Queue: 4 jobs
Job 1
Amino acid sequence: MRFLLRAFLILLLVAALVAGGAYIVAGRMAGPSISIVKPEKYVGATAPLEVVVTAPAGKLSQLQIVLEQNGKPMPLATLADPAGASIKQEGDDRVRVTRQVGKDTLPGLQSGPARIVVTAARPVLHGIRTVQSTAAHDVQVRLERPKVSVLSTFHFINLGGAEMIVYRATPEDVESGVVVGNLEYPGYPASGATVEGVKISDPAVRVAFYALLYDQDVNTSMRIFARDPAGNTARADFDHKVTPKPFKRSKIDLPDTFLDRVVPAILEGTKEINPTGDTLTKFLSINGELRRKNNEKIASFAKQSAAEMLWRGVVFHPFTNSAVEAAFADQRTYFYKGREVDKQVHLGFDLASFAGKPVVAANRGKVLFAEELGIYGNCVILDHGMGVQSLYGHLSSIDVQPGQMVEKEQQLGRSGMTGLAAGDHLHFTMLVNGQMVNPVEWWDSHWIEDRILRKLRAAGSS
């Protein structure tokens, strides 16, 4: 009997030791993995909160999310009380928590530093014990809206043309500019505007070039915007007057000799499209899909524009010794053997005089692009700063390289008939933040004076 009792006690001791060892080992297991995805850096009047917690089978015994500020924790969500948060399991092991955080949901929130703290625990050893993890993420709370006000006056814009505005935006780190319809045109520090006798040192003063595109309504809304990194916004309306402009319509016949020349050459030089079918079908793909892709690439160079005015406050080279073969926003209808096959809009000027004519820079700028570009053939794009750029297409040769600074009327190459060109000519256009605008304005000294120089002088004198 004593032997049996002793054996039983030994078994109990062994079981206790095993259980205790398992309990200790379980306590050393990893807690849930926590990732605070949003907000990344700032919390504004409202900001998205996104937390991802990973645990086996997504099982959590505890989840608590708080925002700590000035030593005070403000609850955001728990398992027992989501408090407006969405807590969803994704896949086998992941739980995602989302909600909005801001002054409306946290009345005690103040501008200044804060910290988001997430605590999560999961059951182990069949629920006998839990293991816990904590993650914290520092953020900056910004509740004050930016301020923006217009400084310049008399803003006149032609349909298809450009304009410039001078305004003040604070604080200094806000993103700002002009909104025309659903398009944004960024502002740049006015200190980068180079005009003789004008110096604008106030860091809050900005300059923005903007456009009213040829296909936008003349009543399209326009306003100044400012947006801080926390998502707080401000806006200001400004006086403006729009002048409608008629655009030409033309018919273009597509002879087989033209198609047989341009289609194979363009397709050989691009990887953007790979159409099948007969030559006409391939041309339509070039004239539509490739044109769109080329224009998207051209627009992408706007992000590389310098924050200073690289060009000087004089008119852009007007190419007056060239005949105008096609004007800006020419509405073209294409015919093949008497049948209408396509419609496109020509967003530039076609200028011709004699074959292989030297093509010069319209103004001082930096070469951003100098190679073959689909329908534009051999093409050069210059950046003149503050979102203003110019494009030169169909060149037979290119004499400059990307990164090179060129002066006004410096030779860029020679005219040609590369790309979608029926004959030797220069395709020239101006761009404002990647949007093609009517070059005629930039050739007009009165337009340059009234739309740009007048406003900069007024801002400098004030």
Job 2
Amino acid sequence: MFQTIDDIGSGKRVLVRLDLNSPVEDGIVKDNRRFARHARTVRELVAAGHRVVVMAHQGRPGRDTFVSLDQHADLLAEYVETPIAFVDDVHGEAALDAIRSLDAGEVLMLENVRMCDDELPEQPPAAHADSEFVRTLAPEFDCYVDDAYSVAHRSHASIVGFPCVLPAYAGRVMVAEYEANTSIANREFDGPVTMVLGGAKATDVIDVMSALDDEIDHYLLGGIVGELFLRAAGHDVGYDVGDGELYDHQWADNEGRIRELLADRGDRITLPTDLAYEDGDDRTEIPVDGVVKERPLLDVGSRTVERYGDVIEDSAAVFVKGALGVFEDERFADGTVGILETIATTDCFSVIGGGDTSRAIELYGLDEDYFSHVSIAGGAYVRALTGQPLPGVEVLVE
């Protein structure tokens, strides 16, 4: 596989890449589970007497979430339980001076790496290794640690450039995510393997289903993709109503693939039998056979949750990608939360993937310890499930 931080030794100058990308509201960076997860790697590097310099990103240029990392340094410091200095520079003289002044056991965070012009272009590792960004920073360090699995699908300079010119190691988050998210392909389970698939990005879900065949015994569908499959099965759902723009273009893009999957694997695909919609201030459920879609359908119904729960309880492994409803509204959280609660009380190997689904765990007070792994990755999780290469992992292996 790859080397980990256990292989570094002690007393090194370490450049570590984290993913601390977070929600931003009115200029305030919100805490999320990424700080707590990555803190373990930073704590262990500090305990080993390394000089630790953190690289991370926030947002993209032109977006409201594209802000400085000064708040991130303070949030991470709370979890690391060590002061983290911040420098408003990525690889200029101010950054170099701050790096060179570090003592053993101290931590410095550089400015948002996406403020560096060399960071964002999708280029091969060798091209990034030859960038001014990498050529300037790399000589200041003995090694590089990548803990940012959730951006491992990006071929950006801070992800793939430094491993070409420095000894490279995986942090704790990188190792845990890699092992969990490749377990469908790499592990054998003593019993049925089930995937719960939902969310708003139907193409991602269909890609996962297309890539995984013999490995999966049951697919339980909800969310937008669930409606699209119901539409293919002849029900009056799976299209936009009012001002919505979620269904019709995804149906146009994926109709052929959906029909093919239903024809080839219909015995393994379970669709909702009832759905929920907003009726005044209340939640109302209706069987799919009786639906005439005149308003948005916001969750799977209670009978569907019960049927899906029966499948999960008989499974040896359960993988989740995407929410089954609009769980942010408590009235329409029954599907997503009900399924998560069933998984939590079932003796099975479980991986909960995708930012939305893992957010539901936090929002409704579920205990992460009841799941084998709760991923903080989105795009990288999907690519791992579909067998696509992850440049950030490939460079570590190489």
Job 3
Amino acid sequence: MHILETRERTVKLEGEIANAVVSFADHTVSLVALISDQQRNGKPVIGFGFNSIGRYGQSGILRERMFPRIADAEPVSLLSEDGCSFSAAAIAATAMRNEKPGGHGDRAGALGALELAVWDLNAKLRDEPAYQTIAGHFKHSLRSESASVYAAGGYYYPDNSTTRLHSEFSAYRDLGFNAFKMKIGGATLPEDLARIDTALQVAGSGARLAVDANGRFDLAAAREYGQAIEPMALRWYEEAGDPLDYALNRALAESYPGPLATGENLFSAVDATNLARFGGMRPGKDIFQMDPGLSYGLTEYARIIEMLESTGFDRAQCFPHGGHLINLHIAVGLGLGGCEAYPGVFQPFGGYPAQCKIADGLVWPTDAPGFGLEQKIELRPHLDALR
């Protein structure tokens, strides 16, 4: 059993939206295919993965460094001990050969796309949904086959109207979501407060609405916003300052009593360890948002979970960033607190196919083998191009 070929396709995200810091008008995603020598119904079994949303594709790193290392490896070295599946950890280690520690950046997303494709491939070889493969591999007993999911949106659109924000969140509510997240920091504080008030009209209470500043604020601005939103008792206040400014996060946690959320821009277990040590994160309260597709894949993400649990935190505090099918399967398979969804933005990757059940803020992956990416109509042409 071996991998015949590795392929990558750079896919442009759809939509003219922006947060407080960046426009996503020209952002791309790397979609990876691992083509195996195994066949089902006369066709090769292919694993697909991608590097999540909110960065750029990493075709150069994949094609010039990681893919050749996989091609040069002895096929048996990439297999699990029983030889019946591919080893995600071995493939990740092979792809990272001769890479120095640190400097995580785009390299972490490149390997994330490649490593996640291994999980899709293995689940297809077992003819089961990926969340079952994940739970079995990490010896996690499934407590539920659904995950708590919030709908993320509320970006700064060209017309930037509160009417559009209300309509957007109302549409998410009609789909079955009952918790939401919106952007702040890209307008004045009074304007953002008006936008929050509009979102609360749909959410119904602060406990069902989170706000995200995408690292825009210094400590003074973070505290000013914190004081303004504290009476609303929001679900959480996300990434107020630079994601690596652990001192800022710690100082904000000392003055802001509500939950804080951060971590989507940390790309390794070492970075996450520093956040847990120095960022003032509070067990049982604050939210960790590290994203496997941006942090070397599921193997590294499992190390992050292990670290958090060994230092007094709970995996229920973990809500991976990303808003797509892959992280839904990971949240279910590892029994995390939940994850986010992008039902209205970041196509063709955001959100879920129509076959996924959504009700009362819970989402159920389908029983399609692997991550079920083939069920997502918007994504299917790009998958077909890699076959």
Job 4
Amino acid sequence: MCFSIGIDIGSTSTKTAVLDENGTPALLFVQPTGWSSVDTAEAVQQHLIQKGYNPALFPCVATGYGRVAVPYADKAVTEITCHARGAMLLHGSGNLTVIDIGGQDTKIIRVQNGKIIDFIMNDKCSAGTGRFLEIMANTMGLRPDTLCDLASRGGSISISSMCTVFAESEVISLIGKGESRENIAFAVVDSIVKKVASQAGHLDMGNEVCLTGGLCQCEYVLQALGTALNKTIIADANGRYAGAIGAALAAREIRKKAAPEGRMDGVL
């Protein structure tokens, strides 16, 4: 059987997907990106070899923040394209809006009839991103998923600053005042949701909206974002791998001009 490999090196985590010839995931794994995308790419390569999916034998496409740091990839493809394609496969739809809350940026992609027709990407500020959530969770001595769980039981307060540094100061001040962790967690998630909803307001969202990225399995984030957008937000169990899956789909289309002996030509 032929396989294709997609590697999404994000700013905080790296996701890898191996698809079989039918587009079904044969292998999915995630690991911290760390300080060096080059070292991460090498670690991914070794893990793939151990699992029997040597990138020297199968077509491979890289995407994400560190896509240029994958020397064994046959091609680098933009995040927008890969996240859209991955989401379309996961949700079986060519008409949807993809919201990806990444580590350092938030991408909102409008897909119609299987093609990207518009997108917005916030890459200038970490507010409204996974990094923002991680910083606030660390300040509170919590894991990000625990913070999200607590947020569902809180309310009544808000964080006014849209700057991560000043927002962290607000959280520290709230802790000092004895505010409950549930209410502070609510304020943190509410801040992210408002930021994402504000971005999304610049696009025609359409009827079907999906969430990808590390927060896509947080039920409270789905509910809060859905309320803010007045939409039902859907998510797939493998939504965090959307970029890697999209990259693997791109790899399926690669045809090597001069494939080394023993290597597949990339046509699956």
